[in-house]
Amino acid sequence: MPPRTPAPLHSPSTSRRSAANLARLTALLAVFLCSACATYHSKTREAFGDFRRGQFESARARYEDPDADIAPFLAGAEAGTVALTAGDWAGALGALHLAAEVAAEIEERALLGPEELGEIMSSWILNDTARAYQGEGFERVYVHCGLALAYLAQGKLEDVYVEARRANRLLEAEEKLYETSYRAGGWGHAISALAYELLGQYGDAYIDYQRMHEKGVGTAYAGPELVRLAQRLRRDDDLEEWEEAYGAAPEATEDEPARIVVFAGVGLGPFKREARLLLPTHDGVLPITGVSLQERPQPVSGLRLTADGSAIDTIVIESVTRVSSENLEDRQLWAAAKSVARGLLKRELTKKLEDQAGTAGRIVGDLFAILTERADLRSWLTLPDSWQAARLYVPPGEHTLTLGAIGGQTIELGRFELEPGETMIVFARSLDSRLYAHPLGGRLIGATP
């Protein structure tokens, strides 16, 4: 009997399947090669440039353009910030509510407990850019702070409280998840406290200022208000403590003074950069990616409000750059673990391709692993470097107001008449050396009826 011919190692059908698998993976690689340069920075470069130049209408249109392929959360958050800077309160509410709707599910799970949020963060996917972007934890907090600001500008004080309270609850959820304490939350408390004061609910405002003191955020702003409110509420024991820490209460005057409050975003926050490590192994390349933050130069350190010779500088209530950096550090372990796990799975795919298609399979598998392991560089780029505030008490009557960026532009707000006990609010934002401001309240002298 003639010797039996050994069966081929790979049958024709197996070879065809290997070739088909290799072709599909090569096609997928081509897609990733085409999209590799389409980072969030490149997609939004023109919109961000318009924002920095003060071309707010164009910037907002670019962010909201459905063809721009921007994650809905970021489209709403960026457009909302542009609208706030332009003083378009209704537009800000519309855009920021869209961002809040996108993040609603993850927010609800976060408020249920850290275990729920941790489960979402540890999902294993192709790469982090493949998931729907619902904002980082601190970004979701600032969406609600932005909504609170817009409601405050419209005089909808009950809505201010709702948004500020949600912002602080979300921040506390982040702190529980990472078992840490951020020097944050002061911005929401400052907005909420002012709303309570405007409603005449001084006890609730007092609690917000106390929280700022306890957290050690914006204490130079909150401290004098604790002194003033402790005196108003006749909390003599507290008053002694606050006066020792922050100085004596002002002497009473015949007419209740008016006050001018400045709420401002100063500068531009950081942006994400990719950190990449390629580990060669005998089974294939193991790519690991991470994210670092790049801070921007800040030509303006703060703002200065002047009223007929009396001047006050804004105080940093919250450093967005510091909060985002601390939050990123807390997320790095989760991100690194996912990157390593994905890399190991892709290395197994490379081994299988090499077994089926030889060197060509190894090359395609390595390229697939390298190109598909990409760090998520999406982030809310129009956020300021810091949130700042100031409060100046002035005698009732007429005052010429000037607001200047320390290291940048100065603008004349105009001459205003303020009634006893009246509160005037100035919303402001500095971008590079430029300054944009929107005064609300008071009676502008010389204004056309």
Structure, explained:
With 449 residues, the protein is α+β, with helices and mostly antiparallel strands. It has a domain at 256-449. The protein is built from 16 helices and twelve strands. The protein has helices at 12-35, 40-43, 45-52, 56-64, 72-86, 89-102, 104-112, 114-121, 137-154, 157-178, 186-199, 202-215, 219-232, 236-246, 320-357, 359-372, and strands at 258-266, 271-281, 284-294, 303-307, 310-313, 315-319, 386-394, 397-405, 410-418, 423-431, 434-440, 443-444. Strand 8 and strand 9 form a beta hairpin.
Enumerate the spans where pLDDT stays under 50 for 5 or more consecutive residues.
4-10, 115-127
Tell me what portion of residues adopts beta-strand conformation.
Answer: 15-25%
| Strand runs, count | 12
Shape: elongated
Largest sheet: 5 strands, mixed
Q: Helix proportion of residues, in percent?
A: 40-55%
Structural class, from helix and strand content?
alpha+beta
Count of alpha/pi helices: 16
**Average pLDDT level:** 82
Measured distance between first and last alpha carbons: 113 Å
> What gyration radius follows from the Cα positions, in whole Å?
28 Å
What strand line-up does the widest sheet have? 6-7-1-10-11
Secondary structure layout plus pairing:
Blueprint: H1 12-35, H2 40-43, H3 45-52, H4 56-64, H5 72-86, H6 89-102, H7 104-112, H8 114-121, H9 137-154, H10 157-178, H11 186-199, H12 202-215, H13 219-232, H14 236-246, E1 258-266, E2 271-281, E3 284-294, E4 303-307, E5 310-313, E6 315-319, H15 320-357, H16 359-372, E7 386-394, E8 397-405, E9 410-418, E10 423-431, E11 434-440, E12 443-444
Parallel strand pairs: 1-10
Antiparallel strand pairs: 1-7, 2-3, 4-5, 4-8, 6-7, 8-9, 9-12, 10-11
Helix pairs in contact: 1-16, 3-4, 4-5, 5-6, 5-9, 6-9, 7-8, 8-10, 9-10, 9-11, 10-11, 11-12, 12-13, 13-14, 15-16
